Amino acid sequence: MNRKTVAITAFALFSLFFGAGNLILPPQLGFKSGGLWWLVALGFCISAVLIPILGILAHSKLQGTMFDFAKKVSPTFSVFYCYIVYAISISLPSPRTASVTHEMAVQPIWNSSSLITSIIYFILVYIFVVNRSKILDVVGKFLTPGILIVLLLIMGAAIFNLDFNFGSSQFANTFTHGILEGYQTFDAIGAVVVGGVIIISINIKDGKASYEEKKNLIGKAGWLAGLGLFLVYAGLILTGALFGDTFDADISRTALLTGISLETWGNTATFLLSILVGLACFTTAVGIVTGTADFIKGRFNESRTAYTLTAIIGCVLGVLMGQFNVGYIIAVALPALMFIYPITIVLIILNVVPEKWASPKVFRWVVAATVLFSIPDFLGSVGWGDAVASFTSWIPLRENHMGWVLPALLMFLVANLTKSNQSNP
């Protein structure tokens, strides 16, 4: 695998990750964090860069499908988990890309309906999905460089032309808020979804490559993509922080990004932002629908018909859900994320650590603890937090909506220690 192949694969990974949430979330984080922009950036990059890249590294190790991520818990659990993740993916983040594209790229130029935007958008997504053998080349060679160029123009104009004067943070816990906001990028879920897309695309292009060659390629590409994501997120958060006194405190995410573009590039902002939003959102939607179709195809004996029907269903759902505005889709996604994201994080980490520390027993104990202690956060996200507060107030980090972290870590240690004791009587 030469450097060109690594670079193209890294660009493809970056582009498949970098979608609607990745674009609109960081600027508002910086805008509200003021002088603590670096702290919120650190938290955001843990959940939106580090964990997703670990997911790609896990894929390079497994070289299978998303089913392999959870099969050590049990095959039944893994199937259930996969269906939930893919259902969430094609119902929320994929349609959100169309909604963002309409609000920021289409509506400001052509005052058309969101229905027309969604139909045209997902017809194009479908065309890419059914021609999936070309995904790596098209996304890696053409779309990602375009995204990076436009981003650098916007961030560079802000960072090099504005004084570094920051306000105070509006967050009670800046670091934790950054971590939780990173959930909304769906990137950890994206890692287990699009990582499989990359594996299959590599196999289609070069089926003779060995396990080690593919592992090396995906690993190097993953770290390069992660570095790119980190630099872009930090730049967007810093850019938002530099405009802390320019806009109203309650400005929406999409309006803030539009305003920043107007402030930095004036009359050319609408055109540049349209290109950026369209490219970033489109590549993510392609990755999600392709990953879902790949999974269903595998469940039905590599049926091409199953692949095509799933792609159609994913695109139809995208058209239907894409009619809602971005803020509504983000709000609807929160409960699902508070439950499924912690499970995804621990599965990624367990698949990355050495095999001797990740036996089936460890998988089962850690996942069980994560599921149990994620329930209070899920209930809180749907408005039932006060009803269970008296039962959950003792859980460490509960107030930060991360009550699952310490129990999962404790189960990891206990499961490994008891295994060691049993093997050394």
From TrEMBL:
InterPro entries: Brnchd-chn_aa_trnsp_Livcs. One of its GO terms (biological process) is isoleucine transport. It is a multi-pass membrane protein. Keywords: Amino-acid transport, Cell membrane, Membrane, Transmembrane, Transmembrane helix, Transport. Belongs to the branched chain amino acid transporter family. NCBIfam families: livcs. This is Branched-chain amino acid:cation transporter, LIVCS family. It comes from Flagellimonas flava.
